[in-house]
Amino acid sequence: MRLEHLLIFGAVMVVTWFAAIYFWPRLLLSVYRRAILVKGFGDGPVPVNTLYTQQEALFADPLHVPSGTSKLASAGVNRDTLLSLGWLDLSKGPLVLHVPEMAGRYYSLQFTNPSNNTNFAYVGKRTTGTGAGDFLITGPRWTGDVPEGMRHIPSPNRAVLLIGRVLVYGDQDLSRAHGLATQMRLAPVH
Length: 190
Prior knowledge:
By secondary structure, the protein is an alpha+beta fold. The chain has a single domain (34-188), classed as Immunoglobulin-like, CATH 2.60.40. 27% of the residues lie in helices and 28% in strands. It has a five-stranded antiparallel β-sheet with strand order 1-2-8-4-5. Strands 7-6-3-9 form a four-stranded mixed β-sheet, with no helix packed on it. A hairpin with a 4-residue loop joins strand 4 (107-113) and strand 5. The chain is globular and about 75 Å long. The N and C termini lie far apart (70 Å). 23% of the residues are buried.
């Protein structure tokens, strides 16, 4: 009887372990999605299909978060890049990402598939250069032509987590870097 109990316990533990490994990343991304869309990161909720750029005040003084600002805003403090976040829903059609002229400045936009937590595309200095550009982001079943002058980013999923970073050279450069980060925009295709 003891061996039978041990085998049942072992089987339950293995199933639990596999379930935890499989669902843990999805659970974390679900929490992250809720934080972005419902709680926001300082300025209130971030609407779907928009980019939110970290406030200058939070970047300049992350240890003294302004009153009324979410504690989430100071999580993951990074002292050399401004963060931009967005949650995309491509079920209603493609989106256009506009990136301004960065004049040699380091920046990156990371496209993450939330269903398996893998990155499937990057836009930035190392991959697409620092010139201004427009990128067509499409869902998995999209058919159509990419407008002239745009580059195509096909997504394996209708939901996309977009994380952007713009390098800040120093305290005197913060306003300029923030201005560039807020010029990165998402819009529906006209």
